[in-house]
Amino acid sequence: MNIESLIARRNRLLGANTPLFYDSPLHLVRGEGVWVYDNDGEKYLDCYNNVPCVGHCHPQVVDALCMQAKKLNLHTRYLHENILDYVEQLLARFDNSLDRAMLVCTGSEANDQALRIARMHTGKQGIICTNATYHGNTTAVVALSSIFGPQASVPENVRMVPWPDSYRTPDNLRGDTLASHYAAYVNDAIRDLEDKGLGLAGMLVCPLFANEGLPDEPNPYLREAIGYVRDAGGLYLADEVQAGFGRAGRWWGHEGSGLVPDIITLGKPMGAGHPLAGLVARGELIDEFLEKEGYFNTFGGNPVSSAVGLAVLKVLEEERLIENAAAVGEFILQGFRELQQKYDSIGDVRGQGLFFGIDLVSDRDKKSPDAAEAKRIVNKMRDRGVLMSKIGEHGNILKLRPPLCFSKENAEQLLSVLDEVLEGSSV
Fold first, then answer.
1. 195 in the same domain as 164
2. Can you give the chain as a three-state secondary structure string?
3. How buried is 341 (Cβ within 10 angstroms: 0-12 exposed, 13-18 middle, 19+ buried)?
4. What pLDDT score was predicted for residue 170?
């Protein structure tokens, strides 16, 4: 079946507005390592899909899934070692204060559950998030996900604050001054929630600000903003669905700030392609929630999912993929900065580990966002066999987050092709 027929069939069955990447959508049929292949056998360098964090179809992960699926797969109302082994190993990679976990199937569920726990524990309703982010698609968390929808329907108990933009910031603020400028919005939001009688349950934020565009210097801001949150009795809810499992060149994104969150939500790369997600938290928070409200998830933490999770942790460590993300990521970041010197369309380059944002502008002096150029580059890169996407408040930031097994050779291909595409736009 050709692409046009597939799209027509998809629109008929799933709806015409179900999103697809690229002006010419891809029909992918196979993946291996950093590569994906279409139905014609053409291969593409994957620089975007962080879900298969250890590489597409990693043999060790696939074997773990198949071996357990052949034995047993049931919910967690029966005893099974896999979930205990997995949670034990997972928690060992966090601060000792985070000593309980709950497993679910998606990051949306994890964030939804974090909100429930925070509201139950504090007895308050207010939640703070940024004004250009995404935390999932349940009824509760879609209200905090402004990047893909209108903000007019924000409920009364949610306050969206400006994200700490380190590029387009008043008076070229930096460091502590930048942090204080943006953290003041959090303090104002807390006061407003209290004035309305809602109070503050917590602040939900990605510690890397992934969807906002990966700003520089997020940590001074986090320390000041979360200080206001905790002074008001609220919880720090860290959304590590994108930032976690080595993406930033360290196990967890929040580690850069030196702050230990009260609840950390996990997803996407947790199962390297298998639907596995969850949260870790201070034990008293989960114990209190389970006593007062209870929780059960049919598929969360099942023996197959737990076997997959164990395999992912093992591969990350055995293949030293987190160290690789730090080293190769620095090489790529330097390459992007060299391109920035060459092309005026690159206003700013930001990143941590194997996670990058390239801020495209039509006027570098005015820092004018260029969403059209971002879309053009994403499609031209796809045509040349390299996959990436775009994100940000203005839709002008190239977003790259390749599998953690990305090599220096892969990086050189990415940089070379991007140079060619940018050269074409400057002619």
1. yes
2. CCHHHHHHHHHHHHCCCCCCCCCCCCCEEEEEECEEEECCCCEEEECCCCCCCCCECCHHHHHHHHHHHHHCCCCCCCCCHHHHHHHHHHHCCCCCCEEEEEEECCHHHHHHHHHHHHHHHHCCCEEEEECCCCCCCCHHHHCCCHHHCCCCCCCCCEEEECCCCCCCCHHHCCHHHHHHHHHHHHHHHHHHHHHCCCCEEEEEECCCCCCCCCCCCHHHHHHHHHHHHHHCCCEEEEECCCCCCCCCCCCCHHHHHCCCCCEEEECHHHHECECCEEEEEEHHHHHHHHHHCCCCCCCCCCHHHHHHHHHHHHHHHHCCHHHHHHHHHHHHHHHHHHHHHHCCCEEEEEEECCEEEEEEEEECCCCEECHHHHHHHHHHHHHCCEECEEECCCCCEEEECCCCCCCHHHHHHHHHHHHHHHHHHHC
3. exposed
4. 82
Q: In which residue ranges of the chain is pLDDT below 70? A: 149-152, 426-427
**Cα distance between residue 359 and residue 363, in whole Å:** 12
Whether 31 maps to a domain, the answer reads: no
233 shares a domain with 88: yes
Amino acid making up residue 27: H
| Whether residue 301 sits in one domain with residue 426 | no
Burial classification of residue 379, based on how many CB atoms lie within 10 Å of its CB (0-12 exposed, 13-18 middle, 19 or more buried): middle
Residues 222-265 have pLDDT tens digits of 999 999 999 999 999 999 999 999 999 999 999 999 999 999 99
Domain boundary among 318, 333, 350: 318
pTM (predicted TM-score):
0.96
One domain, residues 191 and 96:
yes
pLDDT for 299: 95
Q: 221 is in which domain, residue-wise?
A: 59-318
Please check whether residues 231 and 348 belong to one and the same domain: no
Q: Specify whether 305 is located in the same domain as 342.
A: no
- Is residue 33 situated within a structural domain? no
